[in-house]
Structure to design on (535 residues):
């Protein structure tokens, strides 16, 4: 089964973070990816720019065009900062994988819908 | 074969076999709903066929065969239909025989229904439905919600198990410390609510206690070496031993006033032996909350009178319990126990400080304990007011009348009940 690991953390503009801190964070993710590779787990993922850079389309009203608005869909104290998609045997395995994943304030584990089954 | 005889035979087969049959059929269907349907059909077939063919010697085996066949028929019929949910993940099914041959199928069912990725209410409801075989309307009644609400809750939980890939398996030994509490919490919640209902006309709800007892027995049968499981079963036994003495007529009798000759000695011996085993099986100095709760209940049960209770021992056990599982309710219980060691004045200070804890807001135990301490200090008017405050915060009618009677007695005018 495929699961998305959604990493939540306070908004961070990694461009302005001191290089040592940025390198340390990147190293943590490199270690996690090494763990995934060592277990032969298929994976993909990406880090996101902070939610202050987000743009959201919202319905303006019935029969009207979607409206372009500033900001994320939902304002939270911690936002989705990045994600991985991993192949896991079951939820217990996905939880075990997520325990190895660097996280800011929380990691949501969500099964992907498999349209082919 | 008479109607009563048949009813008894089916009820007996249901009690003994439901979980075993369902747990086995789930492996065939790998779909919880389909397995449930097939098992229900098997019981319907029993009602139809047993009067004519006689009750089979091994009802569980008979029901399993019929349910499995019904499930396979249904699978063949539905093969052409698009599946909406992924199948239940059954790890190790394609592997050679399991390393642990004595593993009971029911245990998989318990741990799947009690997975920590499910909310506690969902875990309790699923366990009652799937492991105890309680019909959905009965589960709804136990939760005091409508049948459609409960049906929706059960459906959502079953859907999550399959869609999120909660595996149908017993956790490995090293995972048990993480996984066992989620299962024990289900039994404990049933026991607590059964012992003193959070609302209603009667003190407890015996049917919940019965269910909790059955579950604790199943867990202890399946995991006879787990200290926390033994502790939970000990608590179940000791509560049962003292339950008849808690009521006089319709009135509540608190521990200090109970007629200890009405306690069931055989159950107490059994419970105390289990509690001792639970402590022995715990890592030294690392006993878990269920073993410690059992030890506290055992000390109370072994005391010849309330006054002769080994309060110092009880306080020491509460200290350990607070280290293992911090909780403001436990702090309150320790303060009450400590009042018998250091006196009510010191305990009153502690309870007053605890009352500020927002987690205890509205909990009637706080004013009830304070009332008892104030009474022992001779501050009767304040004690009466505290009893009234406690009475106003409980929705259990029996508890409320007890607390109001205490208030009336202290106010001087009233005549105490019972």
């Amino acid at each position: 089964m495929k699961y998305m690991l959604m990493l939540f953390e306070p908004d961070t503009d990694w461009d302005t973070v001191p290089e040592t801190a940025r390198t340390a964070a990147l190293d943590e993710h490199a270690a996690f990816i090494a763990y995934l590779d060592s277990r032969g787990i298929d994976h993909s993922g990406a880090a996101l720019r902070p939610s202050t850079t987000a743009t959201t389309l919202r319905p303006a009203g019935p029969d009207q065009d979607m409206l372009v608005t500033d900001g994320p869909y939902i304002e939270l104290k911690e936002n989705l900062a990045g994600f991985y998609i991993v192949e896991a045997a079951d939820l217990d395995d996905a939880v075990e994988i997520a325990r190895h994943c660097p996280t800011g304030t929380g990691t949501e584990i969500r099964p992907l819908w498999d349209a082919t089954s | 074969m008479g109607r009563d005889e048949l009813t008894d035979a089916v009820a007996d087969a249901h009690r003994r076999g439901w979980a075993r049959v369902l747990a086995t059929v789930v492996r065939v269907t790998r779909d919880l709903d389909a397995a449930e349907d097939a098992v229900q059909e098997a019981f319907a077939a029993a009602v139809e066929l047993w009067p004519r063919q006689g009750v089979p010697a091994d009802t569980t085996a008979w029901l399993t065969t019929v349910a499995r066949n019904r499930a396979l028929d249904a699978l063949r019929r539905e093969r052409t239909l698009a599946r909406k949910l992924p199948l239940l993940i059954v790890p190790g099914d394609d592997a050679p025989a399991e390393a642990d041959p004595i593993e009971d199928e029911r245990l998989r069912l318990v741990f799947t229904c009690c997975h920590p990725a499910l909310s506690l209410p969902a875990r309790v409801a699923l366990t009652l439905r799937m492991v105890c075989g309680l019909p959905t309307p009965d589960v709804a009644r136990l939760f005091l919600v409508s049948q459609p609400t409960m049906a929706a809750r059960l459906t959502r939980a079953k859907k999550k198990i399959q869609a999120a890939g909660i595996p149908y398996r017993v956790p490995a030994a090293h995972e048990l410390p993480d996984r066992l509490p989620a299962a024990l919490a289900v039994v404990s919640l049933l026991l607590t609510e059964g012992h003193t209902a959070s609302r209603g006309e009667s003190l407890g709800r015996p049917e919940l206690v019965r269910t909790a007892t059955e579950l604790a027995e199943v867990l202890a049968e399946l995991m006879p070496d787990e200290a926390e499981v033994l502790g939970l079963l000990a608590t179940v036994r000791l509560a049962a031993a003292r339950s008849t003495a808690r009521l006089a007529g319709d009135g509540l009798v608190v521990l200090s006033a109970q007629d200890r000759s009405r306690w069931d000695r055989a159950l107490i011996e059994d419970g105390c032996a289990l509690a001792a085993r639970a402590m022995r099986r715990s890592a030294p100095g690392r006993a878990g909350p269920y073993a410690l709760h059992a030890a506290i209940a055992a000390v109370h049960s072994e005391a010849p009178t309330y006054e002769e209770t080994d309060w110092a021992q009880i306080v020491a056990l509460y200290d350990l319990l607070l280290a293992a599982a911090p909780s403001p309710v436990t702090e309150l219980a320790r303060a009450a126990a400590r009042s018998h060691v250091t006196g009510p004045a010191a305990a009153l200070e502690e309870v007053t400080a605890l009352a500020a804890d927002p987690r205890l807001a509205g909990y009637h135990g706080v004013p009830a304990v304070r009332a008892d301490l104030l009474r022992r200090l001779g501050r009767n008017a304040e004690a009466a007011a505290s009893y009234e405050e406690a009475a106003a915060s409980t929705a259990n009618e029996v508890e409320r009348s007890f607390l109001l009677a205490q208030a009336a007695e202290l106010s001087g005018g009233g005549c105490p009940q019972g």
Observations:
- Chain A has one domain: 2-111.
- Chain A touches chain B through twelve residues (CB under 8 Å).
- The first strand of chain A starts at residue 2 and ends at 10.
